[in-house]
């Protein structure tokens, strides 16, 4: 997403990815610990298509993952 790498959250995501590539959405959510709203915005922007997830599928998966983390 344009401009994301320059934000605090973007820098956090890039640093985690450089440490070790994300294996999937579950790994991304666990390692970045971003709030649900941020994850939803990323999903709506298509940021999780790299994991083979369409926007709506990513949103549903985020809800499921976060319910297990809480």
Q: What average pLDDT do the residues reach?
A: 88
Encode the helix/strand succession as letters: HHHH
**Which spans of ≥5 residues are poorly predicted at pLDDT below 50?**
none
The dominant shape is globular
Relative strand content: under 5%
- The termini sit apart by 27 Å
Largest sheet: none
Question: What does this protein look like?
Answer:
The chain has 70 residues and is an all-alpha fold. Helices cover 63% and strands 0% of the residues. The chain has 4 helices and no strands. It has helices spanning 8-19, 25-32, 36-44, 55-69. Helix 2 packs across helix 4 and helix 3 (36-44) runs antiparallel to helix 4 (55-69). The longest helix has 15 residues, at 55-69. The mean pLDDT is 88.
Short overview:
With 70 residues, the protein is an all-alpha fold. The protein has four helices and no strands.
How is the secondary structure organized here?
Layout: H1 8-19, H2 25-32, H3 36-44, H4 55-69
Helix pairs in contact: 2-4, 3-4
List descriptors.
single chain, 70 residues, 0% strand, globular
């Amino acid at each position: 997403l344009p401009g994301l790498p320059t934000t605090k959250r973007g820098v956090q995501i890039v640093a985690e990815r450089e440490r070790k590539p994300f294996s999937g959405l579950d790994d991304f959510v666990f390692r970045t610990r971003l709030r649900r709203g941020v994850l939803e915005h990323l999903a709506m922007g298509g940021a999780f298509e790299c994991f083979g997830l369409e926007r709506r599928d990513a949103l549903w998966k985020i809800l499921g993952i976060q319910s297990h983390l809480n």
